[in-house]
Amino acid sequence: MPTKTLCQTSDQKKERFIRFQFDINLNPSNSTSSQTFCGFTLPPSQFSKSNQLDLKFKTDDSMAHGGYDLSYYSVKPTLVSSRNSDKMFYEFEPIFERSGAITPVGFPSAYPNNTIQRFSIRPPSGLFCTFKMMTLSLTSVTDVDNCDATDTLRYKTVIATNDGGDEEHRDSNWILPCIPGDETYEFPKGKGLNYYFEFKSDNDNENNGSGFRIHWNCEDYTEEII
Fold it and tell me: pLDDT of 157-195, one tens digit each?
């Protein structure tokens, strides 16, 4: 019979019984790179140069209404110069899944300073997509006309072409004002759209939040013909 597993929690700093344990090994050839997460705590995003990811999921003999959902994307960090300061630029590869989630680097622990992180989501054509802001913890934007003044998240939608790309002639402006960190936001719903998100962090630790988590799901739709 399965036995309960003892696990160290970061918030309580003590051992306790858990209902499940989740081990992540980002480099199977090096066991020291693995991490263990307990209970329903959301683990931070991880980076790996390996092309293999091992997951181990343990449960005990009790019922638990939970589980896990894993999303992974390719990204190549690049150091760029912006306004007399160096920023780490993370441009994630386009995401073509019909459902998933995006978070900044380090979420939900802490995101790094001086970064630009861009996500492009290009769902399959012919689907109706809904985007939801599940978590948002950024600094409040005092000047919505100056989006570079603090940590901000902004987005834009672009009409997709039949091959999944963008319209040749499109409005390249991001939607403003920037999304304040103390408010919730509803993203436009629609079909045939590509979604772009950009997150910028400044060099100040004092105004950092935990970041954001955006979920999306695309479903088939039907149109009534009269």
Answer: 888 876 655 654 444 566 655 666 556 677 888 888 899
Residue with tokens 């009269």: 226
**Residue 72, both tokens:** 């992974």
Kind of pairing between the strands at 85-91 and 115-121: parallel
For residues 133 and 99, what is the distance between their CA atoms, to the nearest angstrom? Answer: 14
Domains within the chain, CATH numbers bracketed = 5-59 (no CATH), 78-220 (2.60.120.290)
Answer whether the bond into residue 177 is a cis peptide, omega within 30°: yes
121 phi, psi to nearest 5 deg: -115, 120
HSE (side-chain half, CA atoms, 13 Å) at 158: 22
**Encoded tokens for 82:** 């912006």
What does the alpha-carbon distance between residue 150 and residue 206 come to, in Å, rounded to a whole number? 11
Chain centroid, CA 216 distance in Å: 11
pLDDT tens by residue, 203-218: 888 778 888 889 999 9
